[in-house]
C-alpha cells in the first residue's frame, strides 16, 4: 500500500456535490471559500476562473480542469470580472437549454464541491496550491473522466448517482496526485515515499501504526543500518523516525476521536499505545490537554456546510 493511498483511505471523504451547467453569456457563478475542495471542468466553450482579491484570472477551455482549495471565495464566468451570482441565483438565471445538443454559443461546464473529514484530508488539501490548473493536454486520464462525467449527467439512467460519485472520486484522486507532484509545498512524506530507501519504512508506519516500531525495525525494512537509516530519514523528512511516527499516531488519534465511534481505550490501542495512560500522556504532550477534553471541545464545533447549485 503506497503512502498516498493510505492517506486517501483514512481521509474518509464525506462525499461531494456535482452539477452540470449550460450557460450563454453573460453569466457568472460565485462560490464560497468554505468549500474545502472545488472542482471545475469545461466540456464545451470556455470560462474564466479567479479568486477574490486576485487580479489573475485563469482561462479554461474544453477538457481543462481546475481544482480550488478552500480560502477566499472564487468565481467562474464568461469573462474576467463579470457579475457573479450565488449558486442559488445562478441555478435560475442560466439561459442555456439542457435538452438535446447544447447550442454552439453555450459553455458547458461541471462544478463539484468535495469534502474530506479530519486532519488527514485537510492536510492533503492544504498541500495543494490555491488554484491548480490541469490542462487537458497534460493529463489525458483526467480529460477522459471529465468526458464521462458530462455524458453521464446529460441523461438520466439507472444507478446514475453511484456512477457520478465514483467518477468524482476518481477525478479528485487524479487531481490530488497530479497537484501534489507539482506543488513545491507538497508534504515531505509525499516526496520521500518515492525514495526506494525510505518507502518500505514509511508504508509500514502509515499502514500499521499500532505496531511497536523501533528504529532498528524500520531500518531492517529499508535494508539499511540503523545509523544510515536515521540519517537519511532525518535529511528527507526533517525529523527523526520516532518523532515522525509519533506525529502520525497523533494525527490518526485526532481523526478517531472526532469520529466519536471508538472509546479512548480503543483509540489508544489502534494508534500503538499499550495503555490509556501512555496514550493520554503522549496526547497531552502534543496538544496541551487530555484526549477526553479535546474530544469534547471539538465536538462542539459546527462543520461548514457544502453549498450546491
Question: What would you say this structure looks like, in words?
Answer:
With 309 residues, the protein is of the alpha+beta class. The chain folds into 2 domains: 3-182, Jelly Rolls; 190-299, Homeodomain-like (Arc Repressor Mutant, subunit A, Orthogonal Bundle). The protein is 46% helix and 18% strand. The strands form 2 sheets. It has a 5-stranded antiparallel beta sheet with strand order 1-8-3-6-9. A 4-stranded antiparallel beta sheet has the order 2-7-4-5, with no helix packed on it. Helix 4 packs antiparallel against helix 5, helix 8 (215-221) packs across helix 9 and helix 11 packs across helix 12. The longest helix has 23 residues, at 160-182. The radius of gyration is 22 Å and the shape is elongated.
- CATH superfamily label of the largest domain: Regulatory protein AraC
Strand content: 15-25%
Kindly give the count of domains.
Answer: 2
Output the strand order for the largest sheet.
1-8-3-6-9
- CATH class of the largest domain equals Mainly Beta
Global mean pLDDT: 84
Counted by DSSP, the helix tally is: 13
Structural class: alpha+beta
How large is the radius of gyration? 22 Å
Could you list the spans in which at least 5 consecutive residues all have pLDDT below 50? 302-309
The CATH topology of the largest domain? Jelly Rolls
Biggest sheet features: 5 strands, antiparallel
Strand and helix order: HEEEEEEEHEHEHHHHHHHHHH
Distance between the termini: 37 Å
How many DSSP E strands?
A: 9
Task: State the helicity in percent bands.
Answer: 40-55%
Just name the CATH architecture of the largest domain.
Answer: Sandwich
Q: What coarse outline follows from CA principal-axis ratios?
A: elongated
